[in-house]
Amino acid sequence: MQIKLCTPLTVDKTSKLKAGDSVLLSGIIYSARDAAHKKLTELIHNEKKLPMNIKDQIIYYVGPSPAKPGKVIGSAGPTTSYRMDSYAPTLLDLGLKGMIGKGARNQEVIEAIKRNKSIYFGAIGGAAALIAKSIVKSEIIAYEDLGAEAIRRMEVKDMPLVVIIDSEGNSLYELGQTKYLESIKVYSKK
After folding, report:
1. What's 58's domain CATH number?
2. Contact in structure between 15 and 166 (CB atoms under 8 Å)
3. Catalytic residue set
4. What is the pTM of this model?
5. Domain containing 35: what range?
């Protein structure tokens, strides 16, 4: 079963999602990778205004390729998330409710997810062209000088995602491994 989910992402929505849930996300999300995250945290530490309000928002870790003629965006596959781990807790503590990427997160990020009742979604690596079809609008709102790593405001429709870490800190990576190991034990006893 796929869960239809619309932004903004509020605590009442995040608290219902569980690790392993399949989601079709629609609404506004923002793109940012490590260079943009560094600039955002510098603004925060210098008590300056961010280029967007991150409360109840989602950041997609992506650096899309240039759009082909007639297209909104180029290929838009997820970036490996651990590159944002040193920045994520600060943004989560300021109200960010969701992150989209690929790969595991460190314990500090997981604690910040739990503390803020946030969500970490996984996007399918290698499906960049397919994911791009879910992006119906895209505009650079900050750091155009960063090229592919500029911050974009994107409108998505039915973007396919999986909840990797839910608001309680449950991780699909751990749950999936446990289920697999249990199935091997049951199978080997037969």
Report:
1. 3.20.130.10
2. no
3. 37
4. 0.91
5. 2-189
